[in-house]
């Protein structure tokens, strides 16, 4: 039920009267703030007010506010608290509330928000709290921030009531409402808008709740580089974002969140802004190559990177070697990976080094003579790049590493987090280590070997990143509903998962499932029928189109589907352009673009191939399918198209 303007005025008036009656001596600002917050209790929020509110300032917050938008400790003060005072307030709030349980999870300390309301808002703070003016209070109730449902709100409030000695619970009702029943919150207490929004984002409760194991990783102190691994959907990124918040509150230096994929940091930036709006400008979210370009530009180093031209140079070089290397393996991409990922990606500097190198993860065994042939291809490619004045992506990493080796960062980061690290090259890892520098809590690497979609072949120790005793493994899958998880497990053919450092990791098979239900469907038919089948599924989707993605292995496989969807009037957005914004469009893209993301529904388009593929390619494809399937939360459709 939405309150009419009249009812809203009445609620406001009741709130003002109640505040006047309960706290007669309050000054103008606290009175107005309290009345404004109190009015929201008519819409399902819970309010606890300090007994001595308005008198001498005490250690704790003036008000605790709990609702669909999260848990807030609110202080009303003309002056902004300094760092020590803010820390004391936060400690008090965390001491009282964190650890309140909800099923398998508990209220996270980093999920409690400190808000200071003063005469002026928007003032820059020390990152411990959000500073708002009275007129900015509606920000706390914004629709896109709602992520707890009424049961969760009720459950936290009930537990909070027992822990908040010295606080009084106040509420007002909308006109014509029955008194609130004790126990479960009446659904009518939430406006329709709020119910809808909270239900649309049921998975976002990670903003407030964490599994105790996740929580432990958020706050643990590491006296060197640390690593979080674990199967898909176990909250590795969620933990990394909470940890960034935790670390940012303890420092005044900037922090960096980076991945290999270009758009992923932007999506996670949006999540972080919701988790920690007061720290939004302290953490830089950017992909590794963009960071490197920015850094080189800052140092006045000009680079010329052009993907199309780089590919052309490789193809030109390949021509001269096709005959001999093609006899070993006809696909030029195999050799391009060898140059990109093995020779350049691992920083091999001489033929002698290459001859000695164990090419872990590559299917073809190469003897010394064959390696010499590959080396010749690499050299031709390098020469062509040089002649054209071009740099490829590996060159950028090398240039940045050299530059940083000569002169460190002007403003070092307090912490660097790298996500999806399984797809970063070894040289990229080394660079990350240099960017982060040495010291406790400075470098956190997050990834899952089972989701590697590019050939890697390294171990963290190869990059000089020792993580002994600082490797965390998460095991509870929170993303995929049980049926989707079960389907995805069929791609978990790996006998052994690497934990990124040569030890045995946890496979998807072993993940515990946190969400029941879910739906999966399969389709198989001729290629020509695929677009129509897809359109039909999209029309009958059980979830909103804007929360759905179509995923394939290669972009060219998606063109016909995209055309058919557009012709059917379905708005479509390529994943390359997706930044986490809610837009009502169907997302479409390759598995490389989809990794790290999730959608309520995922439609995977697979093209059955009959060509012979080697073990390495088969394993890679299995991992890609695993990534595609585990992007789906509630619904997964798997379409296999067969060529005639
Ligand atoms: N504590 C939690 N409470 C509720 N939901 C959670 C929690 N942790 C994770 N999730 C849900 O699981 C989803 C996956 O989390 P996240 O992206 O962090 O996993 P991941 O391990 O990084 O996954 P992947 O490796 O597949 O990219 C989140 O979007 C969120 O919906």
UniProtKB/TrEMBL annotation:
A molecular function (GO) term: 3'-5' DNA helicase activity
PROSITE patterns: UVRD_HELICASE_ATP_BIND
InterPro entries attached to this UniProt entry: DExx_box_DNA_helicase_dom_sf (IPR013986), DNA_helicase_UvrD/REP (IPR000212), P-loop_NTPase (IPR027417), UvrD-like_ATP-bd (IPR014016)
Domain of life: Bacteria
Positions that bind ATP: 230-237
UniProt-listed GO biological process terms: recombinational repair
Keyword tags: ATP-binding, Helicase, Hydrolase, Nucleotide-binding
Protein name per its UniProtKB record: UvrD-like helicase ATP-binding domain-containing protein
Organism for this UniProt entry: Kutzneria albida DSM 43870
Ion transport listed as a keyword: no
GO annotation, cellular component aspect: cytosol
């Amino acid at each position: 039920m939405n309150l009419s303007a009249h009812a809203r005025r009445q609620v406001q008036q009741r709130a003002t009267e109640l505040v006047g009656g309960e706290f007669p001596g309050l000054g103008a600002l606290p009175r107005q703030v309290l009345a404004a917050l109190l009015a929201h209790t008519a819409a399902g929020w819970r309010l606890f007010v300090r007994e001595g509110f308005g008198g001498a300032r005490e250690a704790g917050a003036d008000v605790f506010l709990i609702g669909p938008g999260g848990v807030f400790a609110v202080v009303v003060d003309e002056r902004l608290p300094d760092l020590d005072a803010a820390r004391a307030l936060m400690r008090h709030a965390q001491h009282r509330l964190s650890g309140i349980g909800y099923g398998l999870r508990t209220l996270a300390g980093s999920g409690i928000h400190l808000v200071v309301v003063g005469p002026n808002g928007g003032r820059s703070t020390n990152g411990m709290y959000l500073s708002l003016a009275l007129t900015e209070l509606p920000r706390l109730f914004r629709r896109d921030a709602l992520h707890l449902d009424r049961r969760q709100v009720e459950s936290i409030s009930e537990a909070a009531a027992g822990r908040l000695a010295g606080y009084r619970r106040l509420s007002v009702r909308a006109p014509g409402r029955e008194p609130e029943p004790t126990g479960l919150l009446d659904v009518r207490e939430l406006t329709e808008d709020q119910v809808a929004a909270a239900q649309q984002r049921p998975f976002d409760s990670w903003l407030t709740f964490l599994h105790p194991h996740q929580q432990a990783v958020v706050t643990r102190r590491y006296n060197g580089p640390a690593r979080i691994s674990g199967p898909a959907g176990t909250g590795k990124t969620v933990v990394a974002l909470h940890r960034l918040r935790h670390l940012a509150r303890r420092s005044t230096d900037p922090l960096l969140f980076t991945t290999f994929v270009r758009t992923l940091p932007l999506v996670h930036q949006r999540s972080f802004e919701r988790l920690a709006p007061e720290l939004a400008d302290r953490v830089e979210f950017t992909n590794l190559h963009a960071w490197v370009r920015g850094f080189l530009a800052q140092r006045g180093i000009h680079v010329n990177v052009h993907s199309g031209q780089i590919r052309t140079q490789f193809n030109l070089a390949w021509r001269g070697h096709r005959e001999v290397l093609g006899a070993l393996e006809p696909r030029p991409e195999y050799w391009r990976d060898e140059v990109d990922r093995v020779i350049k990606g691992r920083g091999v500097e001489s033929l002698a080094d290459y001859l000695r190198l164990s090419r872990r993860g590559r299917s073809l065994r190469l003897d010394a003579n064959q390696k010499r042939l590959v080396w010749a291809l690499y050299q031709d490619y390098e020469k062509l790049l040089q002649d054209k004045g071009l740099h490829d992506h590996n060159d950028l990493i090398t240039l940045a590493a050299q530059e940083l080796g000569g002169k460190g960062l002007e403003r070092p980061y307090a912490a660097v987090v790298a996500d999806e690290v399984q797809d970063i090259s070894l040289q990229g890892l080394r660079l990350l280590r240099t960017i982060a520098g040495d010291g406790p809590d400075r470098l956190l690497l997050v990834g899952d070997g089972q989701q590697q979609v590019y050939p890697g072949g390294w171990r963290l120790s190869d990059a000089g990143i020792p993580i002994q005793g600082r490797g965390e493994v998460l095991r509870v899958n929170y993303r995929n509903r049980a049926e989707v998880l079960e389907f995805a497990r069929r791609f978990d053919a790996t006998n052994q998962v690497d934990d990124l450092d040569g030890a045995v990791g946890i496979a998807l098979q072993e993940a515990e499932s946190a969400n029941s239900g879910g739906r999966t469907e399969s389709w198989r038919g001729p290629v020509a029928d695929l677009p129509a089948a897809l359109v039909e599924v999209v029309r009958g989707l059980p979830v909103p189109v804007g929360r759905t993605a179509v995923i394939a292995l290669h972009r060219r496989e998606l063109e016909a589907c995209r055309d058919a969807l557009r012709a059917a009037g379905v708005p479509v957005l390529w994943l390359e352009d997706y930044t986490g914004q809610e837009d009502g469009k169907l997302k479409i893209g390759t598995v490389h673009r989809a990794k790290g993301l999730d959608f309520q529904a995922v439609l995977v388009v697979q093209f059955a191939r009959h060509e012979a593929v080697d073990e390495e390619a088969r394993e890679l494809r299995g991992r890609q399918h695993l990534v595609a399937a585990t992007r789906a939360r509630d619904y997964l459709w798997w379409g296999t198209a067969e060529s005639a």
